Amino acid sequence: MASILRVNTLTDASSNNSIAMSFVAGGSAKVYIDLTGTSTINLNKSLNVSGTTDNGTGDYTYTYSNSFDGANYSVVCDVAFTSGGGQNTRVTSATSGNARILTTNTANASAVDSLKLYGVNHGDLA
């Protein structure tokens, strides 16, 4: 039998550091990803990610275990690059069920695999 805990505010044991439940539910990351993007991609750590796809050089898709309520949510990504200058990240598509990210070299804008891809998504789940 499931139970429900109904509260308006969470606080620590000494009644300091309180936070409203609306912030916890609405402001928490709904997706987190730590992906190794070179050779065979590897999902190192994640939250709400059911799988990843290597679409080609520097082109990654990650699929959600629980979808968003639509395509209007934020996707924030960054990379750790291998060598030879910096890299840019760009969200090429975001649907309720996945996000596709492209990483390119800052010097010549060519697609390049990333040593690591980090991502956090915020929004409302379906």
Verbal overview:
The mean pLDDT is 90. This protein has one helix spanning 21-27, and strands spanning 9-10, 19-20, 31-36, 42-47, 49-56, 59-64, 74-80, 87-94, 98-105, 116-122. It has one helix and ten strands, in the order E-E-H-E-E-E-E-E-E-E-E. The strands form three sheets. The chain has a four-stranded antiparallel beta sheet with strand order 4-3-10-7, with no helix packed on it. A four-stranded antiparallel beta sheet has the order 5-6-9-8, with no helix packed on it. Strands 1-2 form a two-stranded antiparallel sheet. It is mainly beta and 126 residues long.
Produce a short descriptive summary.
The protein has one helix at 21-27; strands at residues 9-10, 19-20, 31-36, 42-47, 49-56, 59-64, 74-80, 87-94, 98-105, 116-122. With 126 residues, it is mostly beta strands. 18% of the residues are buried.
Beta-strand content: over 45%
Report low-confidence residues grouped into runs of 5 or more.
Answer: none
Q: Give the count of helical stretches.
A: 1
Instruction: Encode the helix/strand succession as letters.
Output: EEHEEEEEEEE
Mean pLDDT: 90
Comma- or semicolon-separated keywords:
126 residues, mainly beta, four-stranded antiparallel sheet, 1 helix, elongated
Element layout with pairings:
Blueprint: E1 9-10, E2 19-20, H1 21-27, E3 31-36, E4 42-47, E5 49-56, E6 59-64, E7 74-80, E8 87-94, E9 98-105, E10 116-122
Antiparallel strand pairs: 1-2, 3-4, 3-10, 5-6, 6-9, 7-10, 8-9
